[in-house]
Amino acid sequence: VTPRRGESRAEKAQACLQENVQLQGARIEQDTFGSTIAFTAHNDLEWALSGIRVQLVVATEGRSVAWEESTHAISIPGGIEPGETRDLAFTAMLPNATPNDAEARVTVLDVADADKRQL
Fold first, then answer.
1. 9-112 has which fold?
2. Quick count: other Cβ atoms within 10 Å of Cβ 21?
């Protein structure tokens, strides 16, 4: 990641994460116990990930306020090695009023290495 002039250390770290840890295909899966948010994570960092902290936004097109905004820490059994892609999921408490056409978006906020050290 090429640092930008005037960019803080936190901004540089966040830009590095956005570039090197791709989260795709976020979806809401409903079952009798509630809502599961499932997505795919790809690690382009030079070290393995043992955990990830994400921001969840559940929204519908045309509405200015999201149905849910929250952060979630996910432990990754076996980790995600450099160059590896894994399917991940976590449980989310969505409001009962959340419509069926709501879409989930997950954004990486932080990661932990194999020794559980956060970026």
1. Immunoglobulin-like (2.60.40)
2. 20
Query: Are the C-beta atoms of residues 66 and 59 closer than 8 Å to each other?
Result: yes
Please identify every stretch of the chain with a pLDDT value under 50, giving residue numbers as ranges.
Answer: none
Q: What tokens appear for 55 in the block?
A: 């921001």
In 1-119, alpha helices (H): 9-20
pTM equals 0.86
CA distance 61 to 32: 26
Q: What confidence score (pLDDT) does residue 24 get? A: 97
For 12-28, the pLDDT digits (tens) are 888 888 899 999 999 99
Tokens of 17: 């994460």
Q: How far apart are CA 3 and CA 20, in angstroms?
A: 14
User: What are the boundaries of each domain within the chain?
Assistant: 9-112
83 touches 43 (CB < 8 A)? yes
